[in-house]
Amino acid sequence: MQVQTEEIIRRPQAPGLLGGLRRFARNRAAVIGAAIVVLLILTAAFAEFLMPYDPTLQQLELRRQPPTAAHLLGTDEFGRDILSRIILGSRVTLLVSCVAVGVGLILGGTAGLIAGFIGRWVDEVLMRLMDILLSFPYLLLAIAIVAALGPGERNIVLAIGIWSAPAFARLVRGQVLSLREREFIVAAYALGVPVPRIILFHILPNIVPPLLVFATLYMANAILLEAALSFLGLGIQPPWPSWGLMVATGRDFLLIAPHVATIPGLAIMAAVLGFNLLGDGLRDLLDPRLRNRL
């Protein structure tokens, strides 16, 4: 019995990273989501090499053509190649959504960290401000910000960032409130560790995993909001392609050329699905309470 116990103790354990990758690989939905996200990133990164045509080239004699060997996804109302516009649109969508979520993470994360760590009246002021932002319907808030600042890539990034900030603030505040009562934080206080060091080396490393999962899931919402604003004409402006704008311009031809609107709509659906599946997989992987599901 003692020998068996020693063998079990001495048995080499799989490294944490390798074991995590194995658990992640067992989740088929998460693997599919990761594959979609990786494909989207590679498409955006190498768009110039993947586009068969100039996405802004107009050929009116070829307008609204169905998919053919020359144009695999057909052409739009101006004779532009839809495949090329989808490929370049992936870069626009991914860039805007990533930067916007990053802005929301910085603004909301900073507010939540300050509110949770300092507390008292600072917590009340910051959280009431977040409640005011949350009281607006998300699309109406984004429309109001873009309408006030004007359409364009920078303003749509700012609008989505402000819209997502309250959610990140609440998440970070809740994590900080839970962590600051833990024994290792109290011990650091007792030993006289400076507050910036406590935040940098004890608080932040423990809130990164849930923030990573939440940011991944919020990417799907950012893609949808960017598409909605572009659909309304408040986002990316022509001639640059945006999936939401492509759906908007193609809705007038649904009966005679449905591919003009449905193909970019399917691209939006695939991107949102990929980030949602990836976020669920990361949540199951990083949350110890859910690891047995993998």
What does this structure look like?
This protein is mostly helical. It has one domain (37-293): MetI-like (MetI-like fold), CATH 1.10.3720. 73% of the residues lie in helices and 0% in strands. The protein has helices spanning 2-10, 16-26, 28-45, 47-50, 82-118, 120-134, 138-149, 153-179, 183-190, 195-231, 243-250, 259-286. The longest helix has 37 residues, at 82-118.
Question: What is the fold-level CATH name, i.e. the topology?
Answer: MetI-like fold
Shape: elongated
Q: Which second-level CATH architecture applies?
A: Orthogonal Bundle
Question: Largest beta sheet, briefly?
Answer: none
CATH domain class name: Mainly Alpha
Q: Overall pLDDT, averaged? A: 83
Q: Using DSSP, what is the number of strands?
A: 0
Terminal CA distance reads 32 Å
How are helices and strands ordered from N to C? HHHHHHHHHHHH
Query: What's the number of structural domains?
Result: 1
Low-confidence stretches: 1-15
The structural class is: mainly alpha
Strand composition percent: under 5%
CA radius of gyration: 24 Å
Name of the CATH superfamily: MetI-like
Helix proportion range: over 70%
**How many distinct helices?**
12
Quickly describe the structure.
Helix content is 73%, strand content 0%.
What is the fold's blueprint, element by element?
Elements: H1 2-10, H2 16-26, H3 28-45, H4 47-50, H5 82-118, H6 120-134, H7 138-149, H8 153-179, H9 183-190, H10 195-231, H11 243-250, H12 259-286
Helix pairs in contact: 3-5, 3-12, 5-6, 5-8, 5-10, 6-8, 7-8, 8-10, 9-10, 10-11, 10-12, 11-12
